[in-house]
Amino acid sequence: MLIAVVIVFLICNLPTAVVLIYTSVHIPTSRRESALLRGFGNIFNLLAAINAACNFMLYTALSDKYRKYFCAFFVCFRSGEPRQRNIAPMTVDRNYSYEIHTMNSSLR
Predict the structure, then answer these.
(1) How buried is 37 (Cβ within 10 angstroms: 0-12 exposed, 13-18 middle, 19+ buried)?
(2) Residue 87 reports pLDDT greater than 90
(3) What are phi and psi of 49, to 5 degrees?
(4) 45-68 in b/e burial notation, b at 16+ Cβ within 10 A?
(5) Cα 49–Cα 50–Cα 54 angle in degrees, nearest 5
(6) Stretch 31-39: mean pLDDT, rounded?
(7) Residue 70 pLDDT greater than 90, yes or no
(8) What is the rounded distance in angstroms from the CA atom of residue 26 to the CA atom of residue 37?
(9) Is 33 within 8 Å of 22 (Cβ atoms)?
(10) Are strands 100-101 and 91-92 parallel, antiparallel or unpaired?
(11) Are 55 and 5 within 8 A, CB to CB?
(12) Positive/negative CA dihedral, 7, 12, 13, 17
């Protein structure tokens, strides 16, 4: 999953990086070149938005755990009846009352 996310990130953001490097080294001299760079900038901004949408789709498609927590958070319905949650209820840490913990994430 990590490899897929990184590949999509590179495909969507590498063109923007190339144009930014090009414009930092070379100042557009003609109107045509300036318009072309502006058009590419708009296309590459669209690619960045597509990257954000693809990340959600990749995580949903490739991770059972992500899908489970996503469905539990939004209370997925199955045949008209709400599905029971398979995760622990949210608890508040007494030492840090402003933080809400939803998953145990310990490194071992």
Answers:
(1) middle
(2) no
(3) -70, -40
(4) eebeeebeebeeebbeeeeeeeee
(5) 125
(6) 91
(7) no
(8) 12
(9) no
(10) antiparallel
(11) yes
(12) positive
CB distance 8 to 55 below 8 Å: yes
Let me know: does 92 contact 100? Beta carbons within 8 Å. yes
Cβ of 69: how many Cβ atoms within 10 Å?
Answer: 16
Q: Three-state DSSP class for 92?
A: strand
How far apart CA 59 and CA 4 sit, in angstroms, is 10
Residue 96 DSSP class: S
Rounded Cα distance, 32 and 53, in Å: 32
Q: Is the pLDDT of residue 99 over 60?
A: no
| φ, ψ at 87 (rounded to 5°) | -115, 160
Decide: pTM greater than 0.85. no
C-alpha to C-alpha distance for 40 and 33, rounded to whole angstroms: 10
